[in-house]
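Summary for the funding panel

The consortium committed to producing paired sequence-structure records for every protein in the target list. Below we show the first two records in order, beginning with the earlier of the two.
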Amino acid sequence: MNLTKQFQTGITLIEIMIVLAIMVILMTLAVPSFQNGLDRAHINNAAEKIFNDIVYARSEAIKQNTTVRFQLGATNNSATTTTWCYGLEEAPDGTNDCDCSDYYPTEAANVYCKIDGIDKTNTVDNHTSITLSATTDGTASAYAQATFNEFGKRETLNTLLITLSYSGNTRQIEINPVGRIKLIE
């Protein structure tokens, strides 16, 4: 009689079920965190785009030795809105100003929202579902602007605060009276 035991190699169905149950529990914990990260990335992308365009407007004012305006507009005349746009304009003359809200949502670009002949408008279509609000010295407005002179300073002595919101996340951009632009988390 042979008394040696034979061992089987491989895994059992119970072992597979335990591993799958652990994986499901870990995925349940990870997915909400992943979605929050995506939401933060979405709002950060929009805030950084607006911030970079404002910095560009200021630098163009200095480079071209002229005034450049950042013009923010709500396409529904609301101080807090998810339908917004903005444009950059060099040497604004006060009569034919960049107002992207007149042209949104049609495809025609505002001929006055240009720097060096290049269209400089951006709409909510590029940043869906982001709510934007602007305040000037604490007063909410559907339209806001920051005009930089040839020295990169603001032409008006007020603080413009732009607030972006999305899924419980907020980012702010502040432009102070001397033209300093700051991205606030």
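The next record, for a separate protein in the list, is shown here:
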Amino acid sequence: MQQSRDKSMTALGTRADVPTMHRRIRSPPLWRLTLSAQFARFETAFPELMEPLMTARVAMFDQSYAHIRDRLDALKLDIDVVTFGKDGIFRGRHGATRPEETEVDYVWLSTHINADGFRDTAFGYIENLKSAKVVQTFNAGLDHPIYKRLAARGMTICNSSAQGIAIAEYALGQVMAVLQPIDEQRALQARREWKITLFREVSQTRWLIVGFGPIGQELATRLRAFGAKIDVIRRSPAPTPLADRIGTMADLGKFVPDADVIVFACSLTDETRGFAGKTFFERVKPGAILVNIARGALIDDAAMITALDSGRLGTAILDVFHEEPLPKDNPLWSHPKVRLTGHTSFGGNGARGRWDQLFLDNVSRYARGEPLARVVDPKDI
């Protein structure tokens, strides 16, 4: 009997042999091995189809990517960067395509596209994309026609708050240069003449800010520190601790006569286009200072010049115009009551860093599926 059991065990194999036998019995069939090999070849031939479903394709100008690459890479986001050059070709990990062949999720339009007059060409490339979901721009105001067309295609538009601090400080600095008799003081110095010069304190002025986005809010914050009175015109009369009085465009006529300084910081819309015309200037306080850091088309220039010539308007501080660059024969260049700069109010040394950080924060939000910052309602474009 013992010999019979031994023979049986030999035939079946020892207990230690069972796993080996089990593996031999469970070996993959030939059809499965063949399918695995075919799948591996497919994966090699079409890697873009094997990427995670949540990988976002982020497009930007090639100069923008060269500028931001190290900081963007450090975030280790699940994104595929696609760059475009002045030739209009979009280049990514999987080849080069024309705009009409290119599908992306997120577009970053940085100020780099302004170089060499490339902006409008770049806008055209983005408009011709086969598809895009989000466009983040360096612009605060979205009156350029492309933004309305992109929004009409269902794209989400995010504007910029990065220039708010710089523009607010420009406005405040320019007005202080009017309130302070700096030119007179320089003349006295040149003549070596010792004389007291009186000046007007910011704390003794009342400001009217038309438009209360990031620029208006940053300006009001600084004016509060000086003790100025602040009135605000905005879309909604909702209260804010930064203002003494708040109204909408319907209240403009009531606020204008009280203002020592009027600052335009609003968007250019059908409602605001040309609103500063003859009637507006007839209501301003004699000697008032006007600052326009929004859009030139808010103002009827002929009506403004008439108000300056009559003495009704004391000074116009202008950084934006109907036509830019401003033609050399435009009378604003030489008007004695006009302080004119070439659309440079955003040029503070902190603006670039804030533009970059806004993009890095927002693209991170997008990659994580979180709500975006600075999303503009299509009806406000």
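Regarding this second record: The mean pLDDT is 90. The longest strand covers residues 56-61.
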